[in-house]
Amino acid sequence: MALPSMPSLLAVTLCATALTAPRLASAGPSGEAVRLDDLIAIAVRESAGLARTRADRTIAHAEAAAAGVGDDWITTAEVGWNKTVVGEDVAYQPVQLTEDAKVTGTVGVAKRIPTGGTLSAQVGLAQSTQQYDLDPRFGLDATETQQAVDNSQASAQLRLSQPLVRGFGDAASAPRRRAEAAAEGANVKAQLAAEEMIRDLIVSYWELAYAAQELQVRKKSLDLAAAQFATTRDARRAGTVAESAIRAVEYQQAVREEALLRAQVEVEARSLDLRRLTGLEITRREIVLVPGDRFELEAADVRIDDALDLALTDNPRLQALLADKRAADVDVALAEDAARPQIDVGLAATLFGDGASSGEAVGALGAGGGYQVSATLSFQFELGAGRAGATTAATQRRAKVVIDAQDLRRMIEVEVVQAVHAVTAAQRRAELGDKAIDVAVATVQAEIANFKAGRSTNFEVLQRQDELVDAELRKARSIADHHIAVARLEFLTGTLLTRYGVTVRAPRR
Length: 509
Hints:
By secondary structure, the protein is of the alpha+beta class. The protein has two domains: 7-63 and 181-327 and 391-499, Outer membrane efflux proteins (OEP) (Up-down Bundle), CATH 1.20.1600; 80-166 and 342-380, no CATH class. It is 57% helix and 19% strand. It has twelve helices and eight strands. A six-stranded antiparallel beta sheet has the order 2-3-4-5-7-8. α3 (36-46) packs across α5 (174-237), α4 runs antiparallel to α5 and α5 packs antiparallel against α8. The two termini are 49 Å apart. 31% of the residues are buried.
């Protein structure tokens, strides 16, 4: 059901004069021919809006990865050295510590457990050397005034810190789940941005295609007026019409030429808009774009029930709101958890080992070297209504998202029905447009024959020509509306990216 390359208008022109009118392709706008698929591929690469959306998505996924750091194993290690020297004659005592040198080292691992607590294990070793002075005035052996003592200590500790109310269970993983929900929402919003960009680009493309078709029709309309002027001039020379008949055709030529100029400006405006959406450069020499796709209807078998099922499942706007709802659920869980009292229990068990060397100290662990066990219980609860206010705010934000989602579902249902009707109506309008063109062509031909026979006037001929032009424009408008309606329906049903082979890939984590 393609828009004819104006054979009807050409036939009328040939009936009016013996001159051969130019074909439609040569009557169209001159410029760079582009196909819709190529423009979409360029827009996906060059669109500033998509670039910003990709950046937001990458940030969200990076934040989700960072939120999971608390669930990873944490390793710790520490090495220290300390030396203490005591000044001489600090006190009058039989044994004086004059120097103490110590080297310490610890290695540990820790991990947050699913219940919200933290389990950690640590092994430590300390090696010390102490120097003493002995005072012979207290009866000590005067031959050994200095003595050094080496000692090693080893320890092994297991510690558990567990919240019993606030932060217990699922609440511990809430920050990570919220970051993951935000990352999922960023994926959906990236897809939504891509579909909106493609939808707007398709609408702009077919609006340009219609503007190009209108320009062709306006040129042919001017050719028809020129042909009628030649016929009227011959009739005037033969003395069968008055001079005013020529003036009437000249007026109509001026009107149609003005319409042609407006059509040319519209083509340039639509081309610039399409260049902007696509991200194409704009130069002074090359402004006009010529649609390369065939200007014709495409097969579209759409059913309202199927379209509604797809829209309520895959519509990108609805999916974005559902992602916001999941994030709001986590916010409510966090707020409710923060309103609870904080009661934490801590348990620790430590083994000690001593010896003259490091090996002896480690060997003494658990073999009479000693041990220590401890337990602590802490309580904290904020007084006032601050926590309750935070919970109320989070709950209301979630309720607002639910209301928005319900309203959007109703809006989508209406838009889908309208889009399906627009597709089918455009198809029917195109069929009626073909019939109107056929009737208009026959009417123009008959009116020209009557004019030549002296049974009609220029006014009637020009009016029949205007009716033919209107029929051609209505047919072209129905084709453009058909493609635009299909694009909007595919956007509503979430199938637009699949249709044009566009994949919005999530960043690697």
